[in-house]
Amino acid sequence: MGTLLLAFAGLLLLAVLLSSLAHRTILSTAALFLLAGFVLGDGVLGVVSITAEDEVVGTLAELALFAVLFTDGMRVGWADLRGAWRLPGRALGWGLPLTLVITALLAHYLIGLGWIESLLIGAVLAPTDPVFAAALVGNEKVPPRLRQLLNVESGVNDGLALPFVMVFLALAAGSRNLHLGELGLELGLGLLIGVAVPWLAIKLEQTRWFSASTAYEPLNALAIGLLVLALGKATHGNLFLAAFAAGITVATFGQRQREAFEHFGELIAELFKLAALLVFGALITPALLGSVGWTGWLFAVLALVAARPIAIWISFLGSGLSMREQAAVAWFGPKGFASVVYGLIVLSSGIAAASQEFQLIAVTIVLSILLHSSTDIVVARWFDDERDVPAWYGAARRLRDRVRQEPTP
């Protein structure tokens, strides 16, 4: 544990020192932590020795996913969803399940996994991560509707994929261990806690007896999140659904609390993300990468270049998006942090196919991080008009526009 903490602290300092460079180039902080975990893990240097059975793996995965779902939910209150639902609705209502199904078909027919295990891996790899499309989302020359689409979709699909992961994981554990009533109670209780706790906390602060100071305002949402986490653990409600519901509830009823917590919350979530990526990388060994065989690598490639693009193409038929916009949405379906944590949950679940599923998930995520984090700037430049044409043509066009604006004698 001490070695893991030392490695994380050193890498975090390095990431901070390189953060300005990373924003201007294809250098990826996520890729840095993933690669460092791989090199420091048992498969290479053996500095960070960790296994799936270690308590830190399950605990870190749980806390990291809770933090990320809470902050994701806080980005998309009901007002945001109602105001920007047309295009994100296609990506979430059609694109997400279609990606899940196509990925499952690949796992079943290419790898030979059973249907339940194939659907589980499809659910794990269905969510997208906005981190690797940062250059695209942050480029003002990219159409606003496209940036909004990617932001809303990636903020919501982690939570939407969660029930599928839980149900398929329960089914994969075997029919003897599956109790749909208990599972439904767990999900329902999580949803109730996630809505009731933040709503009551916000309403209390709005009364004349309570008022948070400016200095403590960012801690309000943190306290709400911790209370939701504690109640979920105590009552065995689903922590992840509770986190996502709590974030949406804060965004819907507490705009002030949302704005005060936004930057602080993103930093907390980022810390957990990077720690989970380090652990995930340490669990990936050269032996694991080699054991998947050519069919495993082919599955990973097709999961990136076929499953998401086909699903997006079908989902956006008749949507009015240009081919360039559809191509950008189709490509930027990177398998990011949610898939990392869902993969860790599958690995530590004890199901018969846990090791094989984790191997396939791992190689797909590794490919995704390397490919998507190194192409976001390139794809973003598609939408930069000044880069799409030669310099002389841009100068000629500006001269033409200036002549047109001059009054005729």
UniProtKB/TrEMBL annotation:
Subcellular location: Cell membrane
Origin superkingdom: Bacteria
Principal subcellular localization: membrane
Matches recorded under PANTHER family: CNH1P, NA(+)/H(+) ANTIPORTER 1
Record-annotated Cation/H+ exchanger transmembrane domain positions: 14-375
Protein name: Peptidase
GO molecular function: antiporter activity
Single biological process term from Gene Ontology: proton transmembrane transport
Keywords on record: Antiport, Cell membrane, Ion transport, Membrane, Transmembrane, Transmembrane helix, Transport
GO cellular component: plasma membrane
Segments traversing the membrane: 32-52, 59-79, 91-111, 118-139, 159-176, 183-202, 222-250, 271-289, 295-317, 329-354, 360-383
Phylogenetic classification of the source organism: Bacteria, Bacillati, Actinomycetota, Actinomycetes, Streptosporangiales
Keyword Transport assigned: yes
Topology relative to the membrane: Multi-pass membrane protein
